[in-house]
Amino acid sequence: PNTTFDTIRGNIQTRLQKMEQQGFDGVIFSLAGIKRMNWEVAYEVLDFITPAPGQGVVACTSLQNNEEINEVLKKINDQETEYCTQIERQFLQTLEGGCSAPIGAFVQKTEENLFEFSGGIVSLDGKKSLQIQEKMVGDRHRG
């Protein structure tokens, strides 16, 4: 409730520059993005924030009737990631949220055939939130 958030756009360099120029206390990034750039940036992991559904997932798509490309995509698809992402997106759809809704969901495999789900929704003013965590048995091959 005591924090002010604002939207900034641009690539990582632009956002870091805006943080300095506009006097922000911080900017939220995906750690994967910072690591991919191989930058030495001081950061703090905010493990109390549940990421948006599908955050950080790399996806490829093709026309349904392009059988050649679809066969290639099937071979490189990671079924575990697909399964986790489907659950995250189902959570978002169940809450009838979109890309700007303050809804988070994250699924990860913890053991063979056991997945952990974290989900949450926050009021627009940030004063109310509902978080859930559940372990579930899943079959990543069923989709």
State the main characteristics.
alpha+beta; 31% helix; single chain; 143 residues; 3-stranded antiparallel sheet
Number of strands: 3
Major pleated sheet? 3 strands, antiparallel
| Helical content band | 25-40%
What is the CA-atom radius of gyration, in angstroms?
A: 18 Å
**SSE order, as H and E?**
HHHHEEE
Give the distance, in angstroms, between the N- and C-terminal Cα atoms.
Answer: 39 Å
Low-confidence stretches: none
Q: Helical element count?
A: 4
Largest beta sheet: strand ordering? 1-2-3
Mean pLDDT: 88
Estimate what percentage of residues fall within beta strands: 15-25%
Shape: globular
Write structural notes for this entry.
- With 143 residues, this protein is α+β, with helices and mostly antiparallel strands.
- It has four helices and three strands; from the N terminus they run ααααβββ.
- It has helices at residues 12-22, 31-37, 67-76, 79-94; strands at 103-111, 114-122, 129-137.
- A three-stranded antiparallel sheet has the order 1-2-3, covered by helices on one side.
- A hairpin with a 6-residue loop joins strand 2 and strand 3 (129-137).
- The longest helix is centred in the middle third of the chain and has 16 residues, at 79-94.
- It is globular.
Topology summary:
Blueprint (H helix, E strand, L loop, with lengths): L11 H11 L8 H7 L29 H10 L2 H16 L8 E9 L2 E9 L6 E9 L6
